[in-house]
From TrEMBL:
Gene Ontology biological process terms, A to Z: proteolysis
GO molecular function: metallopeptidase activity
Domain Metalloprotease TldD/E N-terminal: 33-97
Ranges for domain Metalloprotease TldD/E C-terminal: 238-450
Name the record gives this protein: PmbA protein
Name of a matching Pfam family: PmbA_TldD_3rd
Length: 451
């Protein structure tokens, strides 16, 4: 039996139990119900200094059910899919609903918005991998890193993970949908030492397809290069300068933007972007597009956590905010319609409307001129209500478009409103390893607090 046959059989079995759960919920007096189950199976191995540190097999998943009755809501979950366990869980959900407050905004998504026949996005690429093979790959990655330079004399290890699973979702509107998916990753963390100076850094790769990941050798070498590049780090004097966020760090800026335009913060009036639809948030040259149906992409999904069909959407057009990110509940709170964002965003793509500034990483350094390149952020000093931004950082001082020396133990600060409006360039060095696909970002000016 092939892996695809096996996963399809598992999905069919869970679909049958989800259907049974919805029927049972109706028989117990629920006006409506939605049931979801995510199951994941896989292997994770870690090595450190040539020794196996951890081997973990995963085979878990739980069925969650939410019932609605007379404007009230109750939820329960179970990892046991037997008829008795399902009955207990659904009975518990129905009983809980008796004691919750009436909420006119609660309930399933509107039927017209659901993905009844979602497309196949080619997210399932299983890899037959033995424990010995996984250990060999992790060891090879770490060995390559350790042998890269004599100043690399310690390691926090290498980890290989390979997971396959599926999601099934159904509701009493008649929707019963599912899809399988895989996720493979390899990471390595190295420690460099020169005199009394020790620095730690890492590298990683992740993909739906195992063969599409970067090689173990390249990840090991990259981890060592990153750690070595940080040796001799200096502190900076307090100043205001342009700041470049490297591509793998730049996505965090847009994570704060996501929080600011998410329905939960909006209806609670806890965002600096209240009533901002149509307003200029970024420079005119910047666009953000959402593309949920990219084949094999890490953040692709044909439907959200409520079964709502996802679709291509423009988030930012000519720098202006085109949409909020809403679930069914937050949309009703705001008198709007859900945007299919229950559970998160789907493949954001950032671009500059014209070529203008930008270019590859080296060209971005030239555009920065003299300023700070940020390669690491620490702490959580961001207030989405006011836009205040203050985080610990490390990276490199850049002079005349060239990296001069590493820096650490500094703080960068500003207002998100000013940082977004002050973006002057987006690089072509796009990081594809997450849900936000962006190159490096240059912000015209930020406060640097140093020695």
């Amino acid at each position: 039996m092939s892996d695809s046959d096996s996963i399809e059989m598992q999905i069919a079995q869970v679909k049958a139990r989800v259907s049974d759960a919805m029927t049972l919920a109706k028989s117990l007096g629920a006006d409506g119900a939605e049931v979801a189950m995510t199951r994941q199976q896989g292997l994770s191995v870690s090595t450190r200094l040539g020794e196996v540190e951890n081997v973990e097999f995963t085979n878990d998943g739980a069925l969650g059910i939410t019932v609605y009755k007379a404007g009230r809501k109750g939820s329960a979950s179970t990892a046991d899919l037997s008829e008795q366990a399902l009955t207990q869980a659904i009975t518990a959900a129905v009983n809980i609903a008796k004691y919750t407050s009436v909420d006119d905004c609660a309930g399933m998504a509107d039927k017209a918005l659901l993905a009844m026949s979602p497309p196949d996005l080619d997210l399932y690429h299983p890899k037959a991998l033995s424990t010995a093979e996984a250990i060999d790959i992790a060891k090879h990655c770490e060995d390559t890193a350790l042998s890269y330079d004599e100043r690399i004399n310690n390691s926090d290890g290498a980890t290989l993970a390979s997971f396959a699973g599926f999601k099934v979702y159904g509701n009493s509107h008649g929707q019963l949908v599912a899809y399988p998916s895989t996720r493979h990753s390899l990471s390595c963390v190295m420690i460099a030492k020169q005199g009394q100076d020790m620095q730690r850094d890492y590298a990683y790769t992740v993909n739906r397809e195992f063969a599409a990941m970067d090689s173990a050798q390249s990840i090991g070498q990259h981890a060592s290069k990153e750690a070595l590049s940080r040796l001799g780090a200096r502190k900076l004097a307090t100043t205001k300068v342009p700041v470049m966020f490297r591509a793998d760090i730049a996505n965090t800026l847009f994570g704060h933007f996501i929080a600011a335009i998410s329905g939960g913060n909006l209806y609670r009036k806890s965002s600096f972007l209240l009533d901002a639809i149509g307003q200029q948030v970024f420079p005119e040259f910047l666009t953000i597009s959402e593309r949920p149906h990219l084949l094999k992409a890490l953040a692709s999904s044909a439907f959200d956590a409520e079964g709502v069909a996802t679709k291509d959407r423009e988030i930012i057009t000519d720098g202006c905010l085109a949409t909020y990110l809403l679930t069914s509940y937050s949309a009703r709170k705001l008198g709007l319609q859900t945007t299919g964002h229950a559970g998160g965003i789907h493949n954001w793509q950032l671009a500059m409307k014209d070529s203008g500034q930008g270019g590859d990483f080296d060209q971005m350094l030239k555009t920065l001129g003299t300023g700070l390149l940020v390669t690491e952020l620490m702490g959580q000093g961001v207030n989405v209500v006011t836009g205040d931004y203050s985080r610990g950082a490390a990276g490199f001082w850049v002079e005349n478009g060239e990296i001069a020396y590493p820096v650490d133990e500094i703080t960068i600060a500003g207002k998100l409103q000013d940082m977004f409006a002050g973006i002057v360039a987006i690089g072509h060095d796009i990081d594809m390893r997450g849900s936000i696909r962006t190159g490096s970002i240059i912000v015209n000016e930020m406060q640097i607090a140093g020695s």
